[in-house]
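Here is my example:
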Amino acid sequence: MESSNAPGGTGGGRREATRQKLYEAAVTLIAEQGFSATTVDEIAERAGVAKGTVYYNFASKSVLFEELLRHGVGLLTASLREAADRSAEGGGSRVDALDAMIRAGLVFIDRYPSFTQLYVAELWRTNRAWQSTLMVVRQEAVAVVEKVLREGVEADELSDEIDIGLTASALVGMVLVAALDWKAFQPERSLDDVHSALSRLLQGRVSGNR
């Protein structure tokens, strides 16, 4: 997964590039064979680095996976926020911003389908060492949508009867699940086609009678 905030400097850039390789190796292997079956040796081999390099960057496989989740959801959150900001700068309504966020989410999932699959699976697991971290980063992503919904209600663009928290979670969940269904069962459909379908759903369900 490509980092959007690599540290400056040659040394920092090299380390970020290494961590990037480890993220990519880990997400691919874990998607293929599961977390428990994936070893640090395999991650190192897939990334093309020494085993010691994994432990230099991450204290353990669990820490690597926790940081992978944090990193990936952070990229998703940033892409959602940027989409909303661009829409606002262009004079769009809050519904336009939500629609832009749906598209940004689909673009992210199209680029990182293995990560998305892992993320959704982990949301439903319990007793994981990284569960609290996952809940925090999930809420950060949902909060971006909540902000736009709240602004829409305050500006009288959206119905004041909507449950902002639940609606935000539903919109994020809709994009995640619909996109995974698209990638797994309807890969012949284009991103534009899937976005159009979700956009129509958004217009009908969120805009209401405004």
